[in-house]
Amino acid sequence: MVGPQYDLVGNPLGAVRATFERTATAAAAESGGSDPVAAFRGKDWGACDFFRSFLFEEDGLDRVPVLNASNLGLIKPNTLVRYRGMVQDMLGNEYYIGAFKDGSTWRTNKFTDFSPFSMPHPCDSHLWERHLFHCVPAPGQNSWTLESSPGPDVRRMSSCLGTELREKRKRDGDSDDMDVSENGHEESSLFCKKPKEDGDVRVSTSSTEVAESVPEMNGGDYHMPGSSFSCLVKVYDMPDSQVKLNDVIEFIGVYTFDPELAAPSDNPDDIMLDLIEDVTVQLPPSKVPRLHCLVWRKLSPHDFISRPPVVELRNRVDVVAVGRLSLNFTGFNRESASIFGNKLYSLIQKLVPYSQAIPMSIEYLNTATLQPRKDNKSGRLVTGVLQLPQGSHLTFDETLLQTGSLTSKGVENTMLLKNLMESQKVDYDFEYYKLDMATDVQLLTLSEGKSNILPSDLVVPFRPSSVPTISAGSEELESWRWYLATVRSLPQSTEPETYQTIQDEMVSAMRDDRSLGCSELSRWLTMAQIMASSFGEKRLSLEHWQMVKELERLRKQRSQ
């Protein structure tokens, strides 16, 4: 494997090339002169395993800086970084020249945007592909989650700081100042986009030139609204179904960013370029950094705490999300919401990874963009307020509602929120059709009376008399975070005898009270399952069922 002469943080591409050339040489000897790299398409030749060993077995993870908005201009390009973000858009695949033959030596361009070597023309080469994801900081991410993976201070890392601005790339053949080139040759562009339909493929090997103008997206903002910055992540050797929209992922890979570099210019003489949609034009490398991923992992809420529990996903049955229980606290007015409501939301922020407070005013409903939509002209998914990571918590303040009229957009937003409340799904607008996307969002509404706009599963009169002082320390907060992440992820089952007893009691309750419906009985069962989970139990017992019945009695008594 690669020797200690390679700085895996400061020069990761050196290790990538060394492992490739060594493996290619060995494969050539075994193949007797045939193409030694044909088998590398869509596969790792050992480079990723080498970095996994460094990161997780040799404690190298703490040496890798975390890329964020505050250090975007401080980290040196072509170094190893970590980036945590939500997959906001899936941009399809991109073809690139993954390997080519330089004389008698096979070289690779994997994990780079530009070849560190001069590519002879013509030459033997292989066209590979990689997945493109536009990622943004997770919406509503609370500050305590950022402390779980601080990384080193880049301001003190001499290997990641530049003493002066990088010189503008020269177009006359001079070498760039990248620390990945061993021969000083010019870089060559490797870009070509994979069309959405069958068709010809463009492969460009000319140097990137500065474009005079870049098409606007979201009013000229290259980063998504409300986000500090975004990142275009390129993932290799991955099945299509492993990463999904709105997943929160930690990517570790090679970072590239050049504020002076514009998007690749198109050749006006190539008529085939008109048939290929290049969505990355909306995300120029001078505005949005790139990360070529070597190692990645999905993040769940429990990954932000120091004692992660064992997680098993909750079930979703047919069209009803099991475990769904939206709450409506009544008895609030503007004054009490500003006191008790703000105190409650502040506590929620300290306990869950993602949370947002939404002012439910007529103006907000008429103007807010809640629904994510596809812009078919740019090929981009334009985010909306309801494009959220799994496990988010939303608090709606309905005390701000006044007499007024809803516009068509206001009505549409109201229907989106009702759909979210009732089915835990969000409608995504793809212009010619709409697609329901399953989500997992906890919902709390604060209102004066029972909300007619947001029909919650459970209405609870809220009658506070004082604001308690919350002085929990970091260890206590961490314990509560661990508890909530653990009990929320516990699977639930019920013994046949217990389920039969509960069913008989439900039938009896419906016989005594004709107003009870299936939704009410389903809510009771969900509450019983949550009650069992709150005790750390995976099986629903009759004791838990009796507790829920008593809670329901007390709730109805308070509502009278």
TrEMBL record:
- Where is this chain compositionally biased, Basic and acidic residues type? 164-173, 182-201
Please tell me where this protein is predominantly located.
nucleus
Enumerate the InterPro entries for this protein: MCM_complex-bd
Q: Which residues cross the membrane?
A: none
Specify residue ranges for compositional bias: Low complexity: 202-214
Keywords in alphabetical order: Nucleus
Q: Does the keyword Amino-acid biosynthesis apply?
A: no
Q: Tell me the Pfam families matching this sequence.
A: MCM_bind
Per the record, which residues fall in region Disordered? 144-219
Q: Where in the cell is it found?
A: Nucleus
Q: Return the PANTHER family for the record.
A: MINI-CHROMOSOME MAINTENANCE COMPLEX-BINDING PROTEIN
According to UniProt, the name of this protein is Mini-chromosome maintenance complex-binding protein
Native species: Urochloa decumbens
Taxonomy of origin reads: Eukaryota, Viridiplantae, Streptophyta, Embryophyta, Tracheophyta
